[in-house]
């Protein structure tokens, strides 16, 4: 009887098929891309479930989280939000409009620059941001909780180095 190896997963099956069908494709870069993509989908799915429960889209969550991370008075320039969240200016405007309608953010004129404004999280926005951040973190812990801290730190540092490498065409 052929018993499957419990250490193997879907990516191992994909890689085994490519080793037969197109061996030059079945190297470490391809496998890493598949594993990172799979993890990204797991994280997105888990996060989306928590955000849906709280009535937030991912874009709304990211804006609120970015405002909350600014500390009091929980405000940032719209252009800073657009850059940090990798949204288009139209996308940012759309998200800010929904958050404003929900009473989670306000737009304020910048007294030092009449052409500019601030986006500020309301007290309800700060509360919603904290609830969403804690819920998302709980989802992340469910995914990564069994990972030893030392291994997690090595992975974090390695992924940072990879994302900052000179071979990456788009960098922040």
UniProtKB/TrEMBL annotation:
A Pfam family: MarR
GO MF annotation, one: DNA-binding transcription factor activity
Top-level lineage group: Bacteria
Single biological process term from Gene Ontology: response to stress
Residue span, HTH marR-type domain: 29-164
PANTHER family assigned to the protein according to its UniProt record, in alphabetical order: TRANSCRIPTIONAL REGULATOR, MARR FAMILY (PTHR33164), TRANSCRIPTIONAL REGULATORY PROTEIN (PTHR33164:SF104)
Identification of the protein by name: MarR family transcriptional regulator
